[in-house]
Amino acid sequence: MDEGHLGLRVSIVGPCASGKSTLAAGLRQHGFLARQIAQEHSYVPAMWQRLSRPDALIYLDASYETCTRRKRLDWLPSEHAEQLHRLRHARECCDIYVNTDSLTPEQVLTRALEALGESRPTRGRVS
Question: CATH number for the 3-118 domain, one of 3.40.50.300, 3.90.180.10, 1.10.10.10, 2.60.120.10?
Fold first, then answer.
């Protein structure tokens, strides 16, 4: 565990089945105060800010096809598109953006850890 990251608040947003819960659990194992925010279900664009006031915001992206395959979701492409619409403010404000379509959970965690370890996020974008 990297003692330098203890107490760093990290929030994770993204569409359903993008890997938020898995990444949050992995980051917690590395000493981060990580939590997933169900922003994709909210009509309040800045809910992620109100609920968590994070030091860093991670946006996990995933296509309709990937989300559907991962959780065997019974939904329409328009529902995925609506989630992306609800997430647009968080995507614009994220510190770290990761498209998880072709990545394993371990690769997503590695990318997040590398990005978080580079420097303290300052509302810029690291991909």
Answer: 3.40.50.300
